[in-house]
Design a protein that fits this description.
heterodimer, A: alpha/beta, Rossmann fold, 2 domains, 4-stranded parallel beta sheet, 10 strands, 51% helix, B: Rossmann fold, 14 helices, globular
Chain lengths: 434, 390
């Protein structure tokens, strides 16, 4: 994803470079557009990844900016520690989400973005309140910092595992009465449903290719890593490029590359080239750590572990569950999209999804990376661990870290746990095949 | 203290200390077919439960006296304490007396706890109550009505009888009286906090989690009658403060006593906020479900779990400070409480603009050592009395 722009080493194999370079250009171009927005008279909408309304925002010629992405970029660039300290100096508790504190700290230190250019203030804070309580407080905090309007979109939580018609109505009504009027006001343009439909059509096209890529991991051995590699694959989809021709082109390219990897019998791309041996197939629950992303990833590929499916790559939309943006029902489809994002799903639904992944992707095990910052993900994970072990008979592993707070990544402990866990898988396997 | 008052407070204390919910069991056994529905903080429409002939039971964790043995195995170290003690209560079968459990949308912890409940206790009724964050009657109001209709239908099924409109109107009236009595008690405490110390007020208020509302109102009225008769209770040279952040996981009683002993009169707070969530009476005329909807949209307490429009943050807190002639604010939030801790910087910035002194510390419901808090609160109180221009 945006992480691609931080990649220090472009793989040498032909065909791999194309999608990565493309993504790098796209993300860099987007950040440049954001940085120049005030000079060029373009308006900027801050919003969140889960439940993002990219097509709607872009249909008004507005530029979306996602503070979580800025925070994870800061984490990967080793800037987040200072930003968090800055926020804590301003009275933000050590107990709360480090994405928020990283964002506030970045703002306090001049709001310099990943490209080294100053990021613009928001013209609108689009508070898509989807699957995370902290989002609400985050934008209330930003509202105090910026003199700009807020559009609040409350997305009902899917505690019972099904989308109810009145939940769709509720969101559509909010889009009509709260979100669209504010987008019109900020952009000076009228809502253009035909334009939105066209963008949704492009979204669905890209979503088909993304799903194909993610599901390629069902192949043994897998041509992709669906967690560490997966965060790159979801980048354009989760950020600013849903509903764009660039997005469609990126996912088509990626699809072709992965198809080629499959044909050539190549394993997942890692920062050190293609992974040669797939010794363990894992399902991963929870976000990655960003401050030591490469080091974390290496702990897996050094041991021959490949993540074949992950929940984190579904926070911005659960497309492999069958959902596609539907141009025939533009606002309704946006409502359904929002409600279906992973962290907006009840715990029983999350367990069912992971169970399905373990079975369909023929996983040897599953691992939970429990994130201190994120109660939305983390609360209940210890029960999920037990439930999944009971239901599948597949053993689970449990590690703890944080999103962007370097104080909560203990490399030695995590490595030790991962290695012990994989040894246990090995022994189990040996026991089953003496 | 008069024996009557001693007994009243002792009774409330015993009620709150009884993790086996004997009072609820006794209430259920008094009549065949009675049922009880538990709820977590902050707000659920208790009127609907009451109108179905069932007892709403507030579950606010287990304080400092319950040893957590199994509950810790379900939660990482960085998650607040209330879900651990609540799970502990449930796994030790102390909550078996409850026929259902409601989890309102206060934060991601309570939200996910609802899913844990569904998986751990699949035979029990569990509902996540997703309160609207849109306060437009045509949008959030319509949604909330549909949610209430579903809840009403669920409760009817559980109770085995319909919830008639008239019964709901009567329940609304019962809760109006209860809330009005609580307001009276808070108002009396604000005028004379030495007559109605918070350490007592809290115990009596918390009894409302377990008692039928009619009984709770009577208990509060009796306290309002008895407390002023204590002629030895006199004002002391203490600072008047508002306590903020205690709306979900409750502080141990020892912490409230510590604040009072450290020189602070608590003249307003957000303890047990769900019992007085609706600020004013709910209409008893017309469509009672719509009355609940309108009350939620227009009379809900301002707290961190609610979305507030621009410019509103801290307004209610400053008003409370002015109305109660408070001299300072103590932010007293549970460790790892997202709503309270994320809200705090916004409230502090408002207080700073208004020149209102404040201090802050964290607690857990099982905090047992208060020396540091006593020192901090004492210093805060002293600084207000010595230096404040307020």
């Amino acid at each position: 994803m945006t992480a691609a722009s931080a990649s220090p080493r472009v793989p040498t194999e032909a065909g791999k470079e194309r999608s990565m370079s493309l993504q790098k250009q796209m993300i860099a171009g987007h950040y440049t557009a954001l940085s120049h927005a005030p000079q060029e008279g373009r308006k900027v909408v801050y919003t969140f990844v889960p439940g993002n309304l990219t097509e709607l925002v872009r249909s008004f010629n507005l530029l979306p900016m996602l503070p979580e992405i800025n925070a994870l970029q800061s984490g990967m660039r080793k800037l987040s520690g200072d930003y968090i300290a800055e926020a804590e100096k301003h009275g933000h508790s050590e107990d709360v989400c480090t994405y928020v504190k990283c964002d506030i700290g970045m703002l306090k230190k001049g709001n310099i973005g990943p490209t080294g250019e100053k990021l613009p203030p928001p013209d609108l804070l689009l508070l898509s309140y989807t699957g995370c309580f902290t989002f609400m407080k985050w934008f209330e905090l930003l509202r105090q910092e910026y003199d700009c309007p807020v559009a609040m979109l409350h997305v009902p939580y899917q505690s019972e595992g099904c989308i109810l018609p009145h939940h769709v109505d509720y969101i559509v009504q909010q889009l009509r009465t709260e979100v669209i009027p504010k987008l019109e006001q900020v952009s000076g343009l009228r809502y253009d449903e035909d334009r939105l439909r066209e963008m949704l059509r492009l979204s669905a096209q890209a979503e088909d290719d993304l799903v194909w890529v993610l599901e390629s991991a069902k192949h043994v051995p897998s041509p992709i890593d669906a967690y560490f590699g997966g965060v790159y694959y979801i980048g354009p989809m989760f950020t600013a490029f849903r509903g764009t021709a660039e997005g469609v082109a990126y996912y088509r390219t990626l699809h072709e590359e992965v198809e080629e990897r499959l044909r050539s019998g190549l394993g997942p791309l890692t920062p050190e080239g293609s992974q040669e041996k797939e010794r363990y197939r894992l399902v991963m629950e929870g976000p990655p750590n960003w401050t030591s992303f490469r080091e974390f990833w290496k702990m897996f590929y050094d041991e021959g572990a490949v993540v074949v499916a992950s929940s984190y790559t579904k926070v911005g939309g659960l497309y492999d569950g069958g959902f596609r943006h539907d141009p025939a029902r533009p606002l309704e489809t946006l409502a359904e999209y929002c409600m279906g994002c992973y962290t907006n799903l009840g715990l029983p639904t999350r367990v069912e999804l992971l169970e399905r992944y373990i079975r369909e992707y023929r996983a040897d095990g599953f691992m939970i990376n429990s994130i201190k910052s994120c109660n939305s993900f983390s609360v209940g994970q210890l029960l999920m661990l037990r439930q999944l072990e009971q239901r599948t008979g597949v053993p689970g592993g449990f590690i703890e870290s944080d999103l962007v707070d370097p104080r909560y990544f203990s490399a030695a402990n995590i490595k030790n746990r991962i290695e012990s866990y994989l040894q246990m898988l090995e022994q189990k396997r040996a026991g089953a095949n003496p | 203290m008069s024996p009557e008052l001693v007994n009243l407070i002792k009774g409330a204390q015993e009620l709150n200390d009884d993790f086996d919910l004997t009072a609820v069991r006794t209430w259920k056994e008094a009549e065949t077919g009675r049922k009880a529905i538990g709820y977590m903080p902050i707000y659920v429409p208790r009127e609907l439960i009451h109108a179905a002939g069932m007892l709403p039971v507030g579950i606010m964790g287990a304080g400092e006296r319950l040893e957590i043995i199994r509950g810790d195995a379900y939660f990482q170290s960085y998650i607040c304490h209330i879900p651990r003690s609540t799970i502990e209560l449930a796994l030790t079968r102390r909550l078996d007396v409850l026929d259902g459990m409601l989890f309102p949308s206060i934060c991601d912890v309570i939200r996910n706890l609802s899913g844990m409940w569904t998986m751990l206790f699949p035979e029990r009724y569990v509902r996540y109550v997703d309160l609207p964050q849109n306060f437009d009657p045509e949008v959030g109001g319509v949604y909330w009505r549909r949610e209430l209709e579903t809840l009403r239908a669920d409760l009817c099924r559980l109770a085995g009888r319909p919830i008639e409109d008239e019964a709901l109107r009567q329940s609304i009236a019962v809760y109006n009286e209860n809330r009005s009595t609580i307001r009276e008690l808070y108002s009396a405490r604000s005028r004379q906090p030495w007559v109605y110390p918070t350490s007592e007020v809290y115990l009596l208020l918390r009894a409302g989690n377990l008692l039928p509302p009619e009984d709770h109102t009577m208990l509060l009225r009796e306290y309002l009658r008895l407390a002023p008769l204590e002629t030895e209770r006199r004002d002391r040279d203490q600072s008047r403060i508002v306590l903020v952040g205690t709306f979900c996981e409750q502080p141990p009683l020892g912490l409230l006593l510590t604040l009072e002993r450290a020189g602070c009169w608590i003249v307003d707070d957000d303890l047990l906020l769900g019992l007085r969530w609706t600020m004013g009476d709910i209409s008893c005329a017309g469509d009672p479900l719509q009355a609940l909807v309108e009350a939620f949209l227009t009379k809900s307490a301002e707290t961190a779990a609610r979305y507030l429009p621009e410019g509103e943050h801290g307004r209610a807190l400053v008003e409370s400070v002015r109305r109660n002639r408070a001299e300072g604010v103590i932010f007293c939030a549970p460790s790892f409480c997202d709503p309270a801790l994320l809200e705090q910087p916004m409230l502090i910035s408002r207080l700073d603009r208004e020149g209102i002194p404040h201090t802050q510390f964290k607690y857990s419901e099982d905090t047992g050592q208060f020396a540091v808090i006593r020192e901090q609160a004492g210093t805060f109180s002293d600084s207000i009395r010595l230096w404040s221009q307020a």
